[in-house]
Amino acid sequence: MNVLIISSSPRREGNSDLLCNEFMRGAQEAGHTVKKIFLKDKNINYCTGCSVCVNTKRCVQKDDMDEILDEMKLADAIVLASPIYFYTICGQLKTMIDRCCAGYTELTDKDFYLLLSGKN
Ligand SMILES: Cc1cc2nc3c(=O)[nH]c(=O)nc-3n(C[C@H](O)[C@H](O)[C@H](O)COP(=O)(O)O)c2cc1C
Q: How many helices (H) and strands (E) does the chain have?
């Protein structure tokens, strides 16, 4: 399987990023091909809700989200990792998920995993 891990904490090697690394190690040991994206390295603007992508399937904004969506489409399994911020996922991951508007209908038949780290 092609596994894509998206680590969204701003803290590299923080708690959720370490969970990503362990997930990656286990998946590689099991023979899977793994790619990890550290979201803080990427430039991702907010979705503006313009709805152009409903017809074009492409976002009018030109930033790193095109590349991330292409990677997501290629993956068989997608791992989303986030610290818990005020009882939910962090804003960085939510911003990325919102930008999936341009391609989420093609993200079918995939396994999704959610890795969360909290205070305790
Ligand atoms: C703005 C903010 C809000 C937080 N809210 C929560 C929360 O609601 N519940 C919780 O258990 N931890 C909360 N925490 C703690 C983090 O989730 C926790 O330290 C987490 O393990 C950090 O993950 P990271 O090292 O991957 O960034 C919060 C931390 C921050 C900075």
A: 4, 5
38 lines ligand 1 (CB under 6 A): no
Of the options 2.60.120.260, 2.60.40.10, 3.40.50.360, 2.40.50.140, the CATH number for the domain spanning 2-117? 3.40.50.360
pTM: 0.97
Is the CB of residue 21 less than 8 Å from the CB of residue 79?
no
Q: Is the CB of 2 under 6 A from ligand 1?
A: no
Render pLDDT for 51-61 as a digit per residue (tens, 0 to 9): 999 999 999 99
